Amino acid sequence: MGRKRQHSDDEASTRDIENSDSGASSGPESDFEKDLVDVDFEFFDPKPIDFHAMKAPTDFGDDDPYAFMTVLNMDVHKDKQVIKQIREYLLKKAEKAGKGGDLLDVLDGSGDVGLLLNERVVNMPPQVVAPMLAMLMEELDRTTFDYYLLLAPTYKDTAAVEDEDGSSSRRPKDKESLIDAYLHAEDEFIEEFAQVKFDYKFSRSKRVSESRNSFAETGVAPARRCLIIHKSKIRALIDRLQSALSPSS
């Protein structure tokens, strides 16, 4: 399929992204002025050549994708090993979070469940998410799946703590919650429409990375929040993303 341009309010939400210093003054004496970056994004179906660029988004050419969104049918592909592993892993995590029954009801229900994959390079603005989701739903005709399952990346600040033996380790500041914030800004609004949600840590968590801020004793612990959205909420979700992530909001 050829490239598709989005000629609607969706495209407007991906343009005129404002970048400004939070301490800048609007007066004539200010050394800072708001910069408007006018950007046009093209939306198109992925091609086989895009595989490596999406698998390892590091070096990009002019025609490489900078963001992608797709859905995997967990029912059609239920016999594939990777889907079996994802299902088993999530059920184990959901059970630990007290949501095992809720997740099982969704996965074993009469309708199909779609695993929603949403990724982009670090500097891509979240304004591209609403038009990508709108076009994806248009292609799916909003009837293919009863539920959409999203594994939203999250993180939690960890503080350095001195153990009894004098060694230093990092532990979550707040034991009541697994997350402090979402990695992707849009997931905060997607959560509003989730019928089922639960947090989980990685079974094989990587070493906590050092946080790049002025607090030398602070690190970041990655985690995930599983969000399950019913198909009846998708249109309202798209409208919410367009409103919340528009440059003027």
Automatic annotation (TrEMBL):
Organism, as annotated: Linderina pennispora
Entry similarity comment: Belongs to the BCP1 family.
The organism's taxonomic lineage, starting at the top: Eukaryota, Fungi, Fungi incertae sedis, Zoopagomycota, Kickxellomycotina
Basic and acidic residues bias: start-end ranges: 7-18
One Pfam family it belongs to: BCCIP
Signal peptide, first to last residue: none
Superkingdom as given in the UniProt entry: Eukaryota
Cellular component terms per the entry's GO annotation: nucleus
Protein name: Protein BCP1
Residue numbers spanned by region Disordered: 1-32
